[in-house]
Amino acid sequence: MKESILVVDDVPDMLKFLERLIQEELHVDVVALDDAEKAMEKVLKDPPSIVLADIRMPKMNGVELLRRIKEMDHSPLVIMMTAYGSIEDAVESLKLGAYDYITKPFDEERLLHTLKKALEHHDLVKKNIDLEKRVKEKEALNGFIGESLPIRRLVETIKIVAKTDLTVLITGETGTGKDLAARMIHALSHRSNKPFIPVNCPTIPETILESELFGYKKGAFTGAAQDKMGLFGTADGGTLLLDEIGDLPTMLQAKLLRVLEEKEIKPLGDTKTNKIDVRVIASTNQDLKEKIASHQFREDLYHRLNVVSISTPSLKEIAEDIPLIANHFLSFYCSEFNIAQKRFSEDTLRMFISRRWTGNVRELQNEIKRAVIFSKGEMITPEDFQNETRLPYPEENADSLLKLTYKEARKNLLEKFNVQYIRDLLDKYSGNVSLAARMAGLERQSLQHLIKRYGIHPEEFRKSANKM
Ligand SMILES: Nc1ncnc2c1ncn2[C@@H]1O[C@H](COP(=O)(O)OP(=O)(O)OP(=O)(O)O)[C@@H](O)[C@H]1O
Ligand SMILES: [Mg+2]
């Protein structure tokens, strides 16, 4: 399907200019509209790949348009145009999920470059949604790799719990397989032919989370043009995973508690409730007990969720499984990318076992994916890993730091901090360097410089839509 861009601006000359420029330079379908309400109708009926919208418009402004677009599932990418000097608008838009912004008066080259990037991104997201879905399905079937006691116990518990309808709370560090555990529970349950709906609580703006979860009636608020089913409704008969439950706003915690107790939901603006049959699994890598103590999490909800608790072990706890897991990913990616089977040298496996993996299995998996793509020979060696892997990782205790001079110790920690910070930052903003720099208060160039210096690859973080 041909890519399309919807341009929205209330100034006729500007609109015409943009339409022509984009059509001529990018050879995509362009629809130009002078009013945000018309634009919203168009987006709902026939979503374009990208929306390029002015912020200042009479009637509905661009920010409101953006907010409504972002309520859709698989919404198009939105790029905002702001007047020079109104940086608050731009920041607000980015917070609401805009892909990028352009300040007016703009440089044509820069506009076209941003649009091209967005088109590439859109294409990647589309491809990635398919790929990710396939990979996740395969993974849920394969399940957890490992023969250590913690993994065997985990799998055993999952199998037992899957046969029940009990609410489950899954805790564990990032990248330890909480999502995988939830998928397995669903796949092994009587609900397996009904939907599995993961909801990443912190990525949905607080203002729309309630309507996302429970749905709304037409007219419930300005912009609610028709009834919308919430995620609970979509998951009916199946399983809903509330990921990062610790970040659920307190107001919604109370509502969720009621839903779990009454097994019914009340869409926004509705007078009656609907019965639902949804199994809820919640997961978190935060310490909920601590959040309860500081009154950020309701204790009654905690007990209601924690009917069964499952915890996924960190990679450190299952270090003996590392070679098995690493080899599993190695053959998986070699066949996924159609590359002749490679293997790890012994010192690579040793390095894997001794290295600290703050991102746990996910980090190991990503490193192996990269190494499969970038390594030259048939044998993968420690040199095939990015700098970070070869950085001397001081243990966090003062003892080993004290073996170094002050300068060395500081350098080590600083490097480690830099690498971790940049990787987390890029991960959060899906490899979008400009956006990441902006959000971190850095000049784009300074961030680029750090990225180069530590051999980090932003492409690695450009991933599927559901993380954005
Ligand atoms: N023991 C394991 N064997 C095989 N694959 C695993 C194992 N543990 C985790 N994985 C894989 O690691 C990746 C990360 O796991 P997952 O997304 O479930 O982590 P998570 O705990 O939900 O992380 P986060 O807190 O960041 O959301 C997934 O691709 C998952 O399939
Ligand atoms: Mg997860």
Globally, the shape reads globular
Radius of gyration: 24 Å
- For the termini, the CA-CA separation is 23 Å
Low-pLDDT segments = 388-395, 464-468
Strand line-up in the sheet with most strands: 2-1-3-4-5
Kindly identify the CATH topology of the largest domain.
Rossmann fold
Question: Which band does the percent of strand residues land in?
Answer: 5-15%
Bound ligands, named by name, code or SMILES: adenosine-5'-triphosphate, magnesium ion
Number of strands: 16
Overall mean pLDDT: 88
Helix content: 40-55%
Explain this structure:
This protein is α/β, with parallel strands linked by helices and 468 residues long. It folds into four domains: 4-126, Rossmann fold, CATH 3.40.50.2300; 143-311, 3-Layer(aba) Sandwich (Rossmann fold); 317-385, Helicase, Ruva Protein, domain 3 (Orthogonal Bundle), CATH 1.10.8; 395-468, Arc Repressor Mutant, subunit A. 49% of the residues lie in helices and 13% in strands. The chain is built from 20 helices and 16 strands. It has helices at residues 12-26, 36-45, 62-69, 87-95, 108-142, 149-162, 178-187, 206-214, 231-234, 250-262, 288-293, 299-305, 322-336, 346-354, 360-374, 387-390, 398-401, 406-428, 433-440, 444-453; strands at residues 4-8, 29-33, 50-54, 77-83, 100-104, 168-171, 196-200, 215-216, 228-229, 239-243, 264-265, 274-275, 279-284, 308-311, 343-344, 379-380. The strands form five sheets. It has a five-stranded parallel beta sheet with strand order 2-1-3-4-5, with helices on both faces. Strands 7-10-13-6-14 form a five-stranded parallel beta sheet. β11 (264-265) and β12 form a beta hairpin. The longest helix has 35 residues, at 108-142. The radius of gyration is 24 Å and the shape is globular. The site of magnesium ion (MG) has 3 residues, from α7.
